[in-house]
Design a protein that fits this description.
This protein is globular. It has a domain at 46-170. The chain is built from seven helices and two strands. The chain has helices at residues 29-44, 48-61, 68-86, 91-98, 123-128, 131-148, 153-170; strands at 5-7, 13-15. 35% of the residues are buried. The chain is mainly alpha-helical. Strands 1-2 form a two-stranded antiparallel ribbon.
Length: 182
């Protein structure tokens, strides 16, 4: 790392810059800017699954633990990774369920211990890929991040199952089940 560089929790090393950071403060300004560039590409060539994985992978790789909102955020994005990667949920199915993970925002989310091994595949490797390879890189990145959180998979699956039950209670008829039971 050169003088003037800073390292992010995801492993990105980049020159220190002034700028905005994510709402929970877990990313450096340079990393947050790289995420913004990746999202701009998502919006210019819309691919809903890729976008879902991009947002969930980034936010789960840059967790904020100092506030209840930060803990809720990382857990919701991990549920998004679980639903998309493990249950095959389409973004249009996963999105509404994520809103049910913590239906009472006043309730404290579970305590989550930080995962030390979040550095590795990150937003930089996705941005470096040519457009034809970016979707594969996003998938690999999302799987890397989901795997890094393995010690918390039982908690995440439990949160997902509870949200799915609430979703089914709110909408009794569904054409396709992502609950794993049908």
């Amino acid at each position: 790392m050169a003088d003037g560089d800073e390292s992010c929790v995801c492993g990105l090393v980049a020159p220190r810059v002034a700028g905005e950071i994510d709402p929970y403060g877990a990313a450096t300004p340079a990393c947050w800017a790289a995420f913004g560039r990746l999202l701009a590409g998502d919006y210019s060539a819309w691919q809903p699954r890729r976008h879902r994985l991009t947002v969930d992978a980034y936010m789960a790789q840059h967790p904020g633990f100092s506030s209840a909102g930060g803990r809720r955020s990382v857990l919701v994005h991990l549920v998004g990774l679980f639903l998309t990667l493990e249950r095959g949920a389409a973004p249009s199915e996963a999105g509404p369920i994520l809103g049910l993970v913590f239906p009472d925002k006043r309730a404290a989310p579970p305590e989550v211990t930080p995962i030390p091994a979040l550095a590795g595949l990150n937003v930089a490797q996705v941005l470096e890929a040519n457009p034809e390879e970016q979707e594969k890189r996003v998938e690999a990145w999302a799987r890397f991040v989901w795997g890094a959180w393995q010690p918390h998979h039982a908690l995440v699956v439990g949160l997902a199952e509870a949200a799915l039950k609430l979703s089914q209670k709110n909408r009794p008829t569904r054409s396709r089940s992502i609950s794993g039971n049908g």
